[in-house]
Amino acid sequence: MRGLLMSICLSATICTFSSCTFQLTHHFIDKLKPEELYLEYNTIPKDLKAISNCEQTPSINIISSETRDSYNIPWGPYTYHVIPSQLMEKVADYMRTGFAKTGVRPDSSCPKTIRIFFEEIKFLKGFWVIGGFFRMKVAVPEIGYTQYYEAEEWSGSGALYQTLNSIHISTQKVIDDPVIQGYILCRDENIRKKQSLADRLQELREALDRKLISSDEYESARQRLIESY
After folding, report:
1. d(CA 224, CA 7)
2. Which of 10, 47, 122, 161 lies at a C-alpha separation of 20 to 30 Å from 111?
């Protein structure tokens, strides 16, 4: 017991006089709750189903394609650690809830697919305020669309809390993106059909080359394109 106590005291001393690393992944996962953040930001979901041109209920398959297992966030003498692959699985789930609130059905079997990737988290410090920054990449392989979404929030509360707020805002930007809405709601079909089949197939091939989709997804989407023309 004495040895254990000495080890704890020694660790605390080392942590006080040098840098320390703290794991935050599960803190993000546990606290990223739609029911709380939607209420805090008074986020009123739009009824996207009402403006859909799809023959059936609009659906989307949201996939986290993030594979990294390590990311460090420096903060003064401390270093905070997150596992991007686990964090983005939670963000994907958060987005599924967000789309469901708009009348868009999350469906893992839907051929329409959105892939999300982690980009950056920063903890920020200002004059009497603390902030959090979040950035992610979203790819829609079928239409060759890639965009970055980010947000930065500040207040007197902790950086972790503000980063959660930034994640909420970033996911709302994805849901509100007119290109993504057009894709999900079948509202861009006429525009897309003006593209030649060769152009569409080239976009699909580029998505495969950039590893945004798998070989099986490429073949499936390629077949659907050919049949649609």
Report:
1. 62
2. 47
End-to-end CA distance of the chain: 74
pTM for this predicted structure: 0.78
**Token digits for 28?**
């993000």
Q: Which residues pair with 76 in a beta bridge?
A: none
Q: Per the structure block, which two tokens stand in for 107? A: 């469906």
Report residue 27 as tokens.
Answer: 């803190």
Strands annotated E in 65-196: 71-75, 78-82, 105-106, 113-125, 130-140, 145-155
Amino acid identity, residue 10? L
Which domains are delineated in the chain? 26-72+83-187 (3.30.160.150), 195-229 (no CATH)
Cα dihedral sign, 88-91-96-102: negative
Rounded CA Rg of the chain: 21
Count CB atoms within 10 A of the CB of residue 70.
9
